[in-house]
Amino acid sequence: MNKGKVYLVGAGPGDPALITVKGRQILENADVVVYDNLATPLLLACVNHQAKLIYVGKKSGKHTMDQASISKLLVELAKEGLNVVRLKGGDPFIFGRGGEEAQTLFEHNIEFEIIPGVTSAAAVPAYAGIPLTHRQYASIVTFLTGHEDPKKVDSGIPWSRIPVSGTIVILMGVANIRKIKERLLENGMSYKTPFAIICNGTLPDQDIVEGKLIEMDIIAKKRGVKPPAIIIIGNVVNLRKELLWFEKKPLFGKRILITRPREQIDEIMSLLTDMGAFCIPFSTISIVPPDKWDLCDSAIANIKNYNWIIFTSKNGVKFFFSRFHELGNDIRDLKGIKIGAIGPKTAQALKDMYININFVPKEYRAEGIVSYISNIEIKGKRFLLPRAEKARDYLPTKLEQMGAEVDIVPVYKNVLPNIHGDYIEYVKKMFLNKDIHIAVFTSPSTFQNFLKLMNIDEDIEKIRDFLNGTKIACIGPVTGNVIEKTGLSINIMPERYTVSNLVDSIVKDCKKYFA
What we know:
32% of the residues lie in helices and 20% in strands. The protein has helices spanning 21-28, 67-79, 98-107, 120-127, 177-186, 216-222, 240-243, 265-274, 294-301, 314-326, 344-351, 366-373, 394-401, 421-432, 444-453, 460-466, 477-484, 499-513; strands at residues 5-10, 32-35, 52-55, 58-59, 62-63, 83-88, 111-115, 141-145, 167-171, 194-199, 207-212, 229-233, 255-258, 278-281, 286-288, 308-311, 338-341, 382-388, 405-415, 438-441, 471-474. A five-stranded parallel sheet has the order 3-2-6-1-7, with helices on both faces. Helix 2 crosses helix 3, helix 12 (366-373) runs parallel beside helix 13 (394-401) and helix 15 packs parallel to helix 17 (477-484). The radius of gyration is 28 Å and the shape is elongated.
């Protein structure tokens, strides 16, 4: 049997966006993922739903699996011919025991690869506005572990040789914070030296405790500091007052669930993340081609018979023209046909194909299209509506009432996506713990499928209780009407139904209510 391969992947400091591009690509193609406590569960969103997940997290005093057993597990999985990802918080080789695991793989002749990660030792201070070096304050940095191998008789840290004039970064030091303070004071560091303890760095609940070295353990105890935390000691801590940036963002500390399809989720996540939000991707629909193309193929074969083609989504544009070109057609075959788009994003998708648009309504929904067309004589005109397999009948019904002939052509359908069960449970737990501040829905299907995935779609009381305490944001009234039928209230909805306006509305609401 061919042996598999083990990838030791650094997950980054906490924020899932800080994993490297290569790390994410390898994670997406894994057969099995062995992950620890500091590797954020949000990264499981990009794991193949068929991949096996094995949690081997270790917290102080509580180990799911000891280190020897973890290393042995990696060898056994590789011998089964699997692509194994060992997902580790931060960087595998910086206080991450990745070196020990790699040694075991080498001893058993298992192929492995190291995918470096953004170490929390550098990233967390940066998110707290603390530069580890600065020409006026520190030209040297010392990285220490505050939790050495308990089998050691003496400390392996040369405390007397640590440059006390530079910056000291201590990982896993909370449990031994008093000893650390005493060692530094004994070896010449000024008791006035500023310190910062950064808890849950790069995450929504990032919290910073500051003070002078002499009181470091006392202040930490008073504030109830718990791991995961990083201790920074040195004069660079004083720069935080000037360089603070992360906590100033308008959506800092807000956890926002995004339910858009995976191929469309990046746009809104990017905008919200730029505003400081911590986004939880949870794509509740997948966009796939229809089971049959017969209606679409017939319409394309007779395309010259139509007077109008109305597109009500970017997906309609994408799938229709993919089939249109696949059958050997090009834009010359649209000569004389008027084209309508429901909104600016749909219009842009058409413009990207060098197709001129005759109108975009002022109101970006079917009602807006009807309002525009009601001023035009359309009796006897033929309309083609390439759209989702299941959609509202409002537009075709109104067009027919005005005397038009309408052909509805399914060019795609919305289906439940394949999501790893562990990730579904993780999201469910966040709602049960009331950790989600805002849930964003951009279509009726995203909401309806969300309820199905949470297994609450048939119980109105469960829906209300489950979402109690979470603000509901939706892109427009069509989605809002579906949500309100469950008895929920819409907290956030933009006046113009676009993603950018939705994000603006979320920011405005947070400034008003979460300040």
